[in-house]
Amino acid sequence: MEDFIRLFLNVEVMLRTWPLLKQGLWMTAQLCAVVIGLGLVGGLFLSFLAMAKSRWLRWPAFVVIDVLRAVPPLVLLIFIYSGLPFAGLDISPFAAVAVAFFLNNSAYYAEIYRAGIQSIPAGQTEAARATGLTSAQAMAYVVLPQAVRNVLPDLLSNTVEVVKLTSLASVVSLAELLYSANMARSLTYNSSPLVMAALIYLAFLWPLVRLVSRYQRKLAV
């Protein structure tokens, strides 16, 4: 038991390596802010294209969404980071991770948005148009708020997955939380920093998971 505590729950090692983990946590927070923010906007744009009346807009959007959902994010990340330089496009680790995860999550957000918008009866749009609103105003002020409320648990669930997905950034040596924890482990020959990183992820994600569950129960009622 003492050996287990010394190797995995060593408070002294955790405190000594906290500055390194704090830098990794800050990098993870920046990455999440960029990926989630761009993903929400990009997903909304893709969902509008997927529901466009013109098939020249609709079908390419479906193809893009299906391809981005089918390609594993790690494969997409390695392709952008290691493949694009052969085409003369050098890209930083942060930019590579941000672009790869933005593309991947935009597709998932797009499908969530589309499901939410299609769940709103057409009569809502017709009623909004009858009051003098344009199609764009009806979508922005009437349909979209209700659609987001209907799919909010799915949006939150996907956001949780995005936060967990950022741990893959360590593959391209981006100093996010997991990479920093692994560096601390190699420097101290102790696994306690990895346990601390896991606890940090838990502290951030558990409230979101509980919020999703609570909101799903509320919608069910």
Structural overview:
The chain is mainly alpha-helical and 221 residues long. The protein has one domain (2-220): MetI-like (MetI-like fold). It is built from ten helices and no strands. The chain has helices at residues 2-8, 11-50, 55-70, 73-83, 93-118, 122-130, 135-150, 152-165, 177-188, 192-220. Pfam families: BPD_transp_1. This is Amino acid ABC transporter membrane protein 2 (PAAT family). Keywords: Amino-acid transport, Cell membrane, Membrane, Transmembrane, Transmembrane helix, Transport. The chain crosses the membrane at residues 24-49, 61-81, 93-110, 193-212.
Roughly how much helix do the residues carry, as a percent range?
Answer: over 70%
CATH hierarchy class name: Mainly Alpha
Order of helices and strands: HHHHHHHHHH
Average pLDDT rating:
88
Q: Give the CA-CA distance, first to last residue.
A: 47 Å
What number of domains? 1
Largest sheet: none
List low-pLDDT spans.
none
**Proportion of strand residues:** under 5%
Rg: 21 Å
If classified by CATH, what would the architecture be? Orthogonal Bundle
Count, helices = 10
Function: Part of the binding-protein-dependent transport system for glutamine; probably responsible for the translocation of the substrate across the membrane.
Subcellular location: Cell inner membrane; Cell membrane
Transmembrane segments: 24-49, 61-81, 93-110, 193-212
Organism: Roseicyclus mahoneyensis
